[in-house]
Design goal:
- The chain is an alpha+beta fold and about 170 residues long.
- It folds into 2 domains: about 35 residues; about 120 residues, Immunoglobulin-like, CATH 2.60.40.
- Helix content is about 30%, strand content about 35%.
- The chain has 4 helices and 7 strands; from the N terminus they run H-H-H-H-E-E-E-E-E-E-E.
- It has a 7-stranded antiparallel β-sheet, with no helix packed on it.
- The protein starts with a helix and ends with a strand.
- About 10% of the residues are buried.
Length: about 170
């Protein structure tokens, strides 16, 4: 029996066809994942994440010293954040002495975890003693990182929170 006839006979075997099909599908899926990963790289919340990560432990003592004079920030979000609905987000500010803060510039920044093109920021306005609030509307459902940044004179504080926006 010639080699080509033996090969034709072997290729008629359903077990061999099944094994070859599994290998072909596996290779095709892996190539697809590789192509997809190069065409749509992940977006990161912070552009210089590597440098900040390296400096994190070097700045630990500075953070400990700053914590002694830090303000307390409490970001309150709606119980169920909803898509395309203006909802009120509040930030309560208390200085290191326990006094509510009334004069500060407060910005609420929203970062979309999977697509930086939808990131946005809103100003929060002073509405009551130690309370800043503003209306926020999310354009997409899913996970969002919120960072409230407070600036008062030379001082700057921030707090972060992750929320899930429902449809």
């Amino acid at each position: 029996m010639a080699l080509s006839e033996k090969l034709k006979q072997d290729l008629r075997n359903p077990w061999l066809r099944g094994i070859l099909a599994v290998v072909a599908v596996t290779v095709t899926v892996n190539v697809g994942f590789i192509v997809y990963s190069f065409r749509s790289p992940p977006n990161l919340v912070v552009a210089d994440y590597y440098e900040k990560g390296k400096a994190y432990f070097h700045e630990e003592r500075e953070r400990e010293l700053a914590a002694e004079t830090a303000w307390r920030l409490k970001l309150l979000t709606p119980e169920t954040p909803r898509l395309n609905q203006a909802q009120t987000y509040r930030l309560y500010l208390i200085d290191h002495g326990g006094t509510p803060v009334d004069s500060a510039r407060v910005t609420l920044m929203a970062y979309r975890l999977d697509d930086a093109r939808h990131d946005f920021q809103n100003k929060l306005h002073h509405v009551d003693v130690g309370t800043f609030a503003g209306e926020v509307t999310f354009p997409l459902p899913g996970h969002w990182d919120l960072i409230a940044q407070v600036r008062s004179g030379e001082r700057s504080f921030d707090t972060a929170q992750r929320i899930f926006v429902h449809e």
